Amino acid sequence: MSMSTAAISERYQHIIREQFENQPGHPHKPLDRIKREGRHAFTHMDFPERRQEDWRYTGIDRLLGQAFVPARPRSTADSETTRLLAPIAGLESHRLVFIDNRFRVDLSALDALPDGVSVYSLREDAPQIEPAISRMESSMIHNRNRFTALGTALLTDGIVVNLAPDVILDKPLEMIFMVTSRSDSVCSTPRVLISLGEGSCAALIERYCGYGQHLYFQNVIEEIILHPRANLQHYRLVEENDAACHLWNMQVQQHESSRYTGLNLQLAGAWIRSDIEIEMNGHGAECALNGLYTVDLGRQNDVHVNILHHAPECKSRQHYKGLLLGKGRAVFDGRIVVDREAQHTDAHLSNDNLMLSDDAEVDTKPQLVIHADDVKCGHGTTIGQLDPEQLFYMRCRGISEAEAFRLLCQGFASDILDTCEIDALREHVQSRLLALPGISGDRPGMES
């Protein structure tokens, strides 16, 4: 271990010790049990290194440049927070707000939740939390890497959402996670557990954001359990500030005939990485995972997806696209594993990248690991540039270079965005995408 890594490890050990001393808690309280698990895991692990295959292309210098301390919750919302919390035009939803490591009931809108839907804060010392804590302990997701262990050790709050069997959520549940700190080196460590009972159905929207130019770290751990015949549409929008780091570790457990549909949109932030693991444990389960990532101005955006087929006659689809500008760098690592027992699996993954700059870089690695002999599986990847003939054709018809560029980028992303079944959200994301620097028409030397 280098001195710099050793020094940052010691600083984190001090931060963790300090938090435990200032907030000693009780060893048998649910939240404190989880935090102690994280503290133990952090002590016995090392930070990821380039020698590890999963981190081969992911530089973590931004994360190791300084030790992040838990964000201090504010008692009131300032004008910028209120602006970011403004509802998406036309979107009707149940709303859950998480700001600076705290679930904010006063800013949430959950009164109209139907019977059979329950929402709890992990800070609650209630019997209803115990099953969720036991689930978190058994999943061992805090042992995935040292950052998940750190997020668990510094955990101050989290959200548990349960749907009873056969409940149909009438409108989406929107979850907003925001960092409002006006100083560098703060972290937010949301922990989310979603459980859909047998035959239940819901749409979930997650939005991650912050403001200003201060460096902060959103370290998110999420677990989703879909019982037999449950159906979840999961939309995730990352719009951090231009200095922020965002790490998302998600684990999905699918049971018989359940369906998971995910749309992961990683649009803004200095350093973004998502680690997604989906376990298809029940016969006939289906999974469709789509995503779009953008990079520019030296930013990095990583996507790592692991779909594990453990049961027969399951179906999975992965399709991710990337828009790469400036000196940005992207990584796509998609993996499908088919166990020997998972006969009649139907699985496919694809990754397409549009290079909008000679300085941009992408490392893409689709993988198939197949142990069964009666399957239908495939993968593919493409890396290309805008077609000059398309630009010329549009310019000849009176369309400016900047507008032609925007339209072609929009066309490239359209089949991903079209998988969003919530019109208001799709329109919001499309407008945000076209407003990003480099796509909005403000590229140097481009005619508007």
Q: What is the compact description of this entry?
A:
The chain is of the alpha/beta class and 448 residues long. The protein folds into two domains: 385 residues, no CATH class; 61 residues, no CATH class. It has nine helices and 21 strands.
What are the SSEs and their pairings?
Layout: H1 3-22, H2 30-43, H3 61-64, E1 69-70, H4 79-84, E2 94-99, E3 102-103, E4 117-121, H5 130-139, H6 146-153, E5 159-163, E6 173-179, E7 186-188, E8 191-196, E9 201-210, E10 216-226, E11 231-239, E12 245-254, E13 259-268, E14 271-280, E15 286-295, E16 300-309, E17 315-324, E18 329-338, E19 346-355, E20 361-370, E21 376-385, H7 388-395, H8 401-417, H9 423-434
Parallel strand pairs: 1-7, 2-6, 5-8, 6-9, 7-10, 8-10, 9-11, 10-12, 11-13, 12-14, 13-15, 14-16, 15-17, 16-18, 17-19, 18-20, 19-21
Antiparallel strand pairs: 2-3, 4-5
Helix pairs in contact: 2-5, 2-6, 7-8, 8-9
